[in-house]
Structures are given as structure tokens and as C-alpha cells.
Amino acid sequence: MALDYPVPEMDVTLQEVCRILQLTLSPDLYADFKSTLEKQRPLLEEAQQKFASRVAGQENWVTEQFKKSLLSCTDPLSTATALPVVLLPSKAKGCNQLKRAAALLWAAAKLYSEPKMLEGDVPMEQTQQSEVFAATRIPGKSQDEIKVYPESIHAIITCVGGVFPVDILQRSSTSEPLSARSFTDIYNQLAKMADQLTTGRQNDPLAICSLSALERKSWAIIREEIMEKGGAAAASLQIMESAVLSLSLEDCNAPSELADILNAVRLGGGDGPCLRYYDKVMNLVVFKDCTAGMVFEHCAVDGMVAGLKPKRPV
Question: What's the CATH number where 115 sits?
């Protein structure tokens, strides 16, 4: 259901501006402002008409302008637009790190395949909802872009041993919609991955995660070189970019203080390898003590949408 974001009425906006400035400016300066405003009013009305025509029919023009601004930000995402959330500790008996990870992956798959679970009885506009899962922020030399992979069925697991794909969705036939794999299926895949780590069968180091934490223009140049060369590195990058989400398995317990947990969720902790894949719009994080968190890419999702996610199955 499309819900248009209203275009503000110029008279209402100007009334509020005048109210604020009358309280903050001296009487002389406020009189000058009012005089200038009356002289420039025809230009303002023309600009208002052009703006209203340009955004007519758009579901959420505010988000589009907001995204364009953030996607032009060249600062590292880790310190600029990464938005962390701490998840409530699991109350399940016998819960361990892999079980918590499997439960979170299953819940994310349910939300992705059944988006109305998040809406409840109140329809929500989809401008941001459509770019939470299976979406990646692709670095660009002038501006980044959000790319969505609607056919993706896998998540990627990042840990000290490397990066591993895990299927969390399935499609019974080409004509059927995606559905979540069972918790048991997802857990068994994680257990098999853990067995590979204990037997020393580890894959390539987590170079791409570290690269995604770089300044955006620098990362864009490096990514372009990787894709041009092709081979295993390009194939690995494509698997990561096309994933539904990323889940980081930390090799340590969460800090004791909430502020420190938020920093650890967003930035990682200790001197180990970078486990956050900042290009992925949604990152899950699970510590050894089963404390968990999420990292959202803010250019694709605002704080309200991010806050709603943990209140549902995740």
C-alpha cells in the first residue's frame, strides 16, 4: 500500500518560521526579515510550485532526498552512518552462540518472506522496508548506491575463520514466493560450518570486511579493481554483496556496560579481524555469551524502522 508523504504548505511553513524568528531576532532584524519576505514571496511561490510538481506521485520524497545526501557521504560507514541496536538477551534454556545465531537468522528470514508481520494492523509505506534485506550499499567514486538482490536466499557468516554462506530462505518452485528455512536446517548449516573451523578448513581472510570500513572513494577504487580482475576475489565479493544479511560470530563475550555493547556491535572489539561488513544494509552480531545486536546502514533505513525490527520475531 503506497502512502504519499505530504508536501508541506508554504503558508504553514512561513508562519512557523516567522514565529521562531520573532522570538529570536531583535525587532529591527525581524522587521527587515518580514520586508524581504514580502518582496521575495513570488519567487518562493514559484519554487513551491516547481517542487510540488517534481515530487508528485512519489511515495516518500523525504526519504529520497535524505538517501541522496547520505549516499554522497564519503566518510567511513563505521563512524558515519552505521546504526547499532542491542537485542534483548535470549531467555531460552540451553541457548548457545550457534543456537542464538540460528534463531536470529530464522527470524530475519521470516520477516523478509512475510513483511506484513512487521506492519501488524497498520499499513506502512515501503520506501525503506524494501531495502533492508538482500540489499547492499555499493561504493561509488562520486556517490554510492543501494542495490537490491531479490533472488537471494543466503546470509553470510563472518567469524575469525573467514566468511561462510548459509541458506536461510527457500523456494519450492519458480512460481512460488520465498519462504524461511526451518530453524533446524539453519542450525545444522551453522554446526557444519563450526566443524570446518575446528578441523582447520578455513577460507580466505576477511579482507573485504576491512575494506568496507574504509573511506568510500578509496573503497570504490579498490572494489572496481577487484571486479575488473575477476577470479576468486570477485566471486567472493559477489556472494557477500548479494546476501540477504550478514551475521558476525564474535569470539568473545559482550562488554558489561550498554554503551560499550553498542560500540562493540557497531565497531567490533579487541584487536582481532574486522567482522562487520558495513556495505550490507543489515548486520546481525552474536557474542559468545549469546548477547546480540544489529547494525543498520542508515542511508537505507531510519531509526524508527530499525527500532521496529527487534520487536518482531528478530
Answer: 3.30.559.70
State CA 14 to chain mean position distance.
35
Listed range (32-36, 266-270, 298-302, 305-309) with the worst mean pLDDT: 305-309
Q: Is residue 71 part of a domain?
A: no
Judge if 94 and 43 occupy the same domain.
no
Gyration radius of the chain's alpha carbons: 23
Q: What is the DSSP string of 4-66?
A: PPPPPPHHHHHHHHHHHHHHHS-HHHHHHHHHHHHHHHHHHHHHHHHHHHHHTT-S-HHHHHH
3-56 residue pLDDT tens = 456 778 899 999 999 999 998 889 999 999 999 999 999 999 999 999 888 877
User: Is residue 147 classed as helix, strand or coil in its secondary structure?
Assistant: strand
Q: How many domains does the chain have?
A: 2
Q: Is residue 4 part of a domain?
A: no
In a domain, 219, yes or no: yes
Domain range for 210: 76-311
Spell out the residues 6+ positions from residue 133 whose beta carbon is closer than 8 angstroms to its own. 108, 111, 112, 244, 245, 281, 282
Q: Are residues 47 and 150 in the same domain?
A: no
Number of other CB atoms surrounding residue 190 within 10 Å: 20
Query: Rounded to 5, what percent of the chain is helix, strand, coil?
Result: 45, 15, 40
Residue with cell 559477489: 238
**Could you give the CA distance from residue 21 to residue 144 in angstroms, rounded to a whole number?**
37
Cα torsion 240, 299, 74, 79 to 10°: value is -80
> Could you report the per-residue pLDDT of 101-151, keeping only the tens digit for each?
999 999 999 988 887 776 666 555 555 567 889 999 999 988 999 999 999
